[in-house]
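STRUCTURE REQUEST FORM
Protein name: 5-formyltetrahydrofolate cyclo-ligase
Source organism: Arctia plantaginis
Requested output: structure tokens
Priority: standard
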Amino acid sequence: MLVVNLLRKGFKMAKVTPNPAKAALRTEIAARIAALTTEEKKRQSEIVYEKVINHPWYKSANRISLYMSTDQEINTAPIISHIKARGGSAFVPQYAGGIMRMLKLEDKDENAMPLTRHGIAQHSKDQIREDAVESGGLDLVIAPGVAFAKTGERCGHGGGYYDKFISNLRSNPQTAPKVIAVAFDCQVVDHVPTNEQDQKVDAVLFAE
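Status: completed
Returned output:
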């Protein structure tokens, strides 16, 4: 019952103890991404897009959560357009008051979203949108992150939002969606430091 209540209310960010190894990895990956040209980011994003839309988990999914990308991430805008064009439902995070909810993107929402202080586009607080968890769950999660291992370990941005989100979804294995990460080549490393709260992803798609 506790898990259900958490799902209904959103995902409150827990206090996270800084991990020096993760902090060092985040700094290293940020430098690698900063070294990529705009053309290279576009090239890799296009390759990853093709991998996503041709992946069997994506093809069989109708309700998909992903994220509004920044210029430091694989461009998710074409994936959002593809989901909508084939009649699917796309859900993206809204962060407010330490809580993350996954809200549906309605027509033209992405063109009018305010930016958070971190430069992330999201629904405004007064927009009423369908919450994925409250209204039937998800078929697939396309998760952001800083660094990934090919074996599925993930290093996020440090807030713990997605780890909590994925953990709650996986509390019922019968309805748990698959989780895919998309990344630039330089975000894929041999080893990602993790702890017991960290959630692995089921696949990492990158432009190798």
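Reviewer notes: Helices lie at 2-9, 20-34, 38-53, 56-59, 77-85, 161-169. Strands lie at 11-12, 63-65, 89-96, 99-104, 140-143, 147-149, 154-155, 178-183, 188-189, 203-206.
Form closed.
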